[in-house]
């Protein structure tokens, strides 16, 4: 499966270098039962052994078993359209949430398309999530230049420029959506010369809780 292939790529020798531009909710405000956001779709150029991605995530221990249920929409599948700097932009909404009955963790696209799930019976350590987050990562062989992240540009407040997440929410035990506040978040940017992340809070309009992330990459260190 593509997800398992990507996990193996990350852990496969030779050692890879990972760079981050992410934002997470502190575990002190959890536990969490879901996370979602709409991200703009870009096609950063990568070479063999490299990755550049945007993602939402939950954290509470290792997971390596995923049950694919949708033959048409699957992890690692291609997008027909990708965004360009200055427009047009294309986006998709992805969510990871726990079903309150089965306790399985489901991945949905556009809030309605079920892709598959992580089985609850296999993961006693994932009854809830300690952390949830949004942002981007690059992965490259040690000693090589990092690929770009997102559009390849730093956040600047213009949503036609840097890659973004809009309508970002988390779910608590009530299973209702809540937007993250500044006092709840922690940013992880390992090399500000290469990548950045800016959280704007709730801008209302057509983006609500949102952030931008990304950058040109290059010589970012190991």
Commentary on this structure:
There is one protein chain. The chain has 222 residues and is mostly beta strands. The chain has one domain (2-214). It is 5% helix and 39% strand. The protein is built from 1 helix and 13 strands, in the order H-E-E-E-E-E-E-E-E-E-E-E-E-E. Strands 2, 4, 5, 6, 7, 9, 10, 12 and 13 form a 9-stranded antiparallel sheet that branches. A 4-stranded antiparallel sheet has the order 3-8-1-11, with no helix packed on it. The model is unreliable at 1-5 (pLDDT under 50). Residues 1-221 form the Neprosin PEP catalytic domain. This is Neprosin PEP catalytic domain-containing protein. It holds the Pfam family Neprosin.
């Amino acid at each position: 499966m593509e997800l398992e292939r990507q996990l193996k790529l990350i852990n496969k020798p030779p050692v890879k270098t990972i760079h981050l531009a992410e934002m997470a909710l502190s575990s002190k405000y959890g536990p969490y039962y879901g996370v979602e956001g709409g991200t703009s779709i870009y096609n950063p150029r990568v070479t063999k052994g490299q990755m550049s991605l945007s993602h939402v995530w939950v954290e509470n221990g290792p997971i390596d078993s995923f049950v694919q249920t949708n033959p048409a929409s699957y992890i690692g599948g291609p997008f027909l359209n990708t965004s360009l700097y200055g427009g047009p932009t294309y986006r998709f909404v992805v969510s990871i949430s726990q079903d309150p009955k089965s306790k399985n963790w489901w991945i949905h696209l556009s809030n309605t398309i079920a892709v598959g799930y992580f089985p609850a019976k296999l993961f006693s350590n994932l009854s809830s999530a300690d952390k949830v987050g949004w942002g981007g990562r690059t992965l490259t062989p040690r000693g090589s230049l990092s690929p770009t992240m997102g559009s390849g540009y730093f956040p600047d407040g213009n949503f036609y420029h840097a890659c973004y997440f809009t309508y970002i929410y988390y779910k608590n035990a009530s299973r209702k959506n809540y937007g993250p506040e500044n006092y709840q978040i922690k940013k992880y940017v390992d090399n500000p010369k290469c990548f950045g992340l800016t959280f704007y809070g709730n801008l209302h309009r057509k983006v609500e809780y949102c952030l931008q992330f990304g950058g040109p990459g290059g010589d970012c260190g190991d």
